[in-house]
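Hi L.,

You mentioned the student needs an example of a multi-chain input paired with its predicted structure. This one should do, with 532 residues in total across all chains.
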Amino acid sequence: MPRQITAFSNPLIKRMRGLREKRHRREEGLFLAEGLRILTEARETGRLPAWLFFSKASAGHPLVTSLIAAVETAGGEAIETVPDILSKLSGKDNPQAVVGVFEEFETSLDALDRSSAGIWLVAERLRDPGNLGTILRTGDAVGAGGLILIGECVDPFSVEAVRASMGALFTVPIVRASWDAFLVWLRGGPGQLVGLSLDTDNDYRAAHYDAPTFLLTGNEAQGMPADYAAACDLLVKLPMLGKADSLNAAVATAVMAYEVLAQQRC
Amino acid sequence: MPRQITAFSNPLIKRMRGLREKRHRREEGLFLAEGLRILTEARETGRLPAWLFFSKASAGHPLVTSLIAAVETAGGEAIETVPDILSKLSGKDNPQAVVGVFEEFETSLDALDRSSAGIWLVAERLRDPGNLGTILRTGDAVGAGGLILIGECVDPFSVEAVRASMGALFTVPIVRASWDAFLVWLRGGPGQLVGLSLDTDNDYRAAHYDAPTFLLTGNEAQGMPADYAAACDLLVKLPMLGKADSLNAAVATAVMAYEVLAQQRC
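Structure written out for the whole complex:
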């Protein structure tokens, strides 16, 4: 039987709210994910929250009832609370019906099986959590083997990144690695490293993408460093017909990923 | 010679800060855009801010000097201020060197020349300002003729949308219209209305996109209403290989727009 918490001053609520900050996530090894859709997706991948907060109004929803039972069976705790507290946890004015607190997870380069997918996403110094989450969501859609984060990237477990991923945080493996470690791993097996660049004449549609292709996306403001570009097997460019000379990083990654997918489907 | 304002209590600063709210933008017919890159792009399209706020530290930058001169020549006012006030205006902790206050502008369906571009973007009930700005930025890159906003969309002149557009707000014509008015206009000339949908077997790569193609993107959470889909000349779907069944709206729009561009370039 779930216990109830209705006071903002409750120590557990204070602790969970702290997970909105990266420092507390690191200390606790926990992160927040909100919404029935995302939590159901997480459950389907075998991940249940250690704590599940839900509103009384949502308790009758079959998916919520089922989620509560699953969390309790797995030894987690389901807690009935009020919309204002859900709002505080998620940081949104109109809170979702459920907020889950999950243990952080990630994988390592050595645990990746590069033969398992034709497309892999690699991003370096990604700064925007919305872009990171959106790239994960695209990765899920194109069946990417994983997202490899190089250098100082924004935290994939931030509330904003988890929200933008729409559940793909749970379905797309994430690895954090240094550029050097990534290159050593990459060159230890088959794989083509493809970078998006403005300094090339290779049109992205004219190039050929063998499986596995590793798509490298550079920092939003600066693109990738020259030595990263030099390490790529292939640099390609997207046509830019307008007055600006760049696309949003998540958009550019998606256009590339769908081109690779289209070629590999044939 | 630019005047200086260093006090938060200055009435002009208070008034300009108010433009972060939609209500005040509507009353004043003004909006905020920040950053040297965006303001320079605006200038190249013939738009100068009515007020230009700059920091003393940036005053020596040749592009800032040139912008100040252009604003003053055009009858606008350049105002030297402090980083804290630029921060308040832009809502960012690390403010850009310049913030401009522009008069709002938009165009009408009747002013659009559909023969001027092969791709047109149409979005209905778009809710996220970042998505709207990102779609504008993609529109600039693919040479779209304009962005037509149907129904209750987020305000394209919000600070977040302007920022995400990276200047494309100034280069891509924007029209706001009702669905009915749009359909009447659309059917008054050549043009194929293409909608992204999950309820079709038409793969987006197998379809053919004649110029002008109007790409319709539905609401982020709900997609487009059934009668909108029924009014499309063609519904297409993107492959979804993952556990989720959707892409970010700006990403889906971009993948489609680049496919149309690739076909029309041939």
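You could point out the following to them. The CA atoms of residues 52 and 78 of chain B lie 5 Å apart. The first strand of chain B starts at residue 3 and ends at 4.

Best wishes,
N.
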